[in-house]
Amino acid sequence: MFIGAQVSLYPMSSRFVDVITSSLQALDPHRPDLRIETDDISTLMVGAPGPLLDGIRDLFTAAARQPEHVTMHVTLSRGCPGEPDDPSCRCDTLSEAQSLPLDERIRRAGQAVAASPGTGVPIDVQFSLYVLGQDRHMDEIYGCIEFLKRSGTFFRSKNFCTRLRGDAGAVFEAVRQAFLRFGPAEGHVTIDLTASANSPSLA
Amino acid sequence: MFIGAQVSLYPMSSRFVDVITSSLQALDPHRPDLRIETDDISTLMVGAPGPLLDGIRDLFTAAARQPEHVTMHVTLSRGCPGEPDDPSCRCDTLSEAQSLPLDERIRRAGQAVAASPGTGVPIDVQFSLYVLGQDRHMDEIYGCIEFLKRSGTFFRSKNFCTRLRGDAGAVFEAVRQAFLRFGPAEGHVTIDLTASANSPSLA
C-alpha cells in the first residue's frame, strides 16, 4: 500500500512566502512519521493516514489562523497500482473497513467525526472522492455522500463535488473517514480537495 | 453526457481580487457557449470541451500575463453518472476516440498539441487523469502518459501526477487531449489539475 498526498498552500497575499513558511512549522510534530518532498508546485507527503491527515489539517489550520484569505489544494491517493508498496503507510482502519457493510462504515465514520478534537478555526472544504478500477464505483461514492450528510460537516452538494463547512478538526476528520472507509481496502482511491478560509466572498 | 469543470484562480497577491476580476474578462468570448456559476470557492463551467478548455486556458493565460505569482486549480469531469445529460456538452472527438485503438489515439492527440496556437505565456501544470468505473483503468492512464511523454509538453513524472511545462497553448491542448482521448467515450473520467505561473521558486 502506498498512501500520500500532493499539497499546495495558497495565501492570497503579497507576503505569501512568509505565510507559507510560518505555517510549515505546524508540520514539525508529524515530520518523523512522514516522507516530505517539496518542489515549486506542491509538497509530497507520504505516510499512514493518521499523521498524513493530521499534518494536512495542522498545516491549513496554522495558515487559516493568520488574517489573510488562504486556500489549499490536496490530491490524496491510496493504492495506486503505479506506486511502490511502503510499509510506513500501513493502516488498520483500512483493513477493518473492508470487512464491514456500507451501513456500518457510515456509522463508524460518523463516530470518528463526532470524537474529533476541535481547533476553533472555521473552514470551508469542497472535495471529490474517486474510486478507480472497479465496477459499481458510484455505490461507494453515494455511501460516502450519505455519511457526509449525517456528519455535521455537510454544507451542500455541487456539481462534481461536495462542500463541507465547520471546525477544521471535524472537517478534516470527515475527509479522512471518506478516504479510508469508502472504496475497497486494497483498491485505488483518490480525493481532489480544496480548502478555504478567511474568504472575503464567503457565501 | 455532462462535461464541465470547477475552476479556482489563486493570485498570490494582496490585490488578488483585482487580478481575478480583470482575468475573468478573458472568459467573455466563451460565455455564450458555457454555463458559468460562481460561489466563494470555485466557478462551475459546463459545456463542450472546445469552449470549456479554451476558456480555462484564456482565463489562466490572462492572469499569468500579470506580474504576480498565480495558480489555478481545476476539477474536470465528463460522464459522471450522478449528473444530468446536457446537449450542449456534445463532443465529436469523444465519439471518434471510442472507435480507435490506443496507438492511434496517442498519435492524434500529439497532432492536436503540435497544431495548437501559441500564447507566448510559459506555464507549469501538474495533473492526474482518473478513469472510473471500469477494470484495467491503468491501461488508459499509461496510454495517456505515453502520449504526454511524446507531446513536447512533458516535464517529469511525480507521485500521483504528471508535470507539463511549456506555452499555455500547447499545455492546455495536451490536457484537453488527455481528457478526451483516454478512458471510454461514455465513461466517467475526471482530471485534477494545478497550473502555476510566475513562481518565485521555479524549479
Automatic annotation (TrEMBL), chains A, B:
Residues 4-83, 124-201 form the Thiamin/hydroxymethyl pyrimidine-binding YkoF putative domain. Pfam families: Ykof. Gene3D superfamilies: 3.30.70.930. This is YKOF-related Family.
